What we know:
202 residues; mainly alpha; Arc Repressor Mutant, subunit A; Tetracycline Repressor, domain 2; 2 domains; elongated
Amino acid sequence: MDQKVKSLTTQKLIVNTSFQMFYENGFNDTSIPDIMKKTNLTKGAFYHHFKNKLEIGKKVIENILSQRIYDGFIAPLKEKSKKNTPDLLYYIFTERINQFSEKEKELGCPANNLINETGCSIEDFRPPLRKLMDDWYTVLVQKIEEGKEKNDIKSDVDSAAAATLLICSFEGTRGIRKVYDDDKLFNNYLNSIKSYIKSISK
Length: 202
């Protein structure tokens, strides 16, 4: 195997494995020896690619968490859709809820988990985590504004406030669901989001 390809493959292994371990155990409770053991890498091989856990954490945010937000929320908002704006918003903010595995319901949102765990304590994580959320928020505001222009969202709707409510209610529901063993909270969220989107629709 070409050395460059081998190096990229090893980096990807470290980042993907670290993501899973951060998601399941938390960033603070995952150590570099834990990651080395899980990846079957020697100390030398590991430190050839990353000098510390902070570097890995930033790569997890930039390469995995950002991609998850993009694939699940940003791309569907950017793509041309036959759905009108209210239907598209409802689809995006409910379909992922309906597709979650039991493990995902139990563990919550990996991006939100990392924000709650490290948002105020690890300064280096704040810019990439903010970018992740800002990118989502910006595209959502744009889509709501487009809905107003197409006359399927009420003209007096505060697009920034609506985007904030949609994102925060989704992330909040995912976080609180971690302490429950049933989907009652999700069902309440789905009903509430349906009512809210209806209230801002033409």
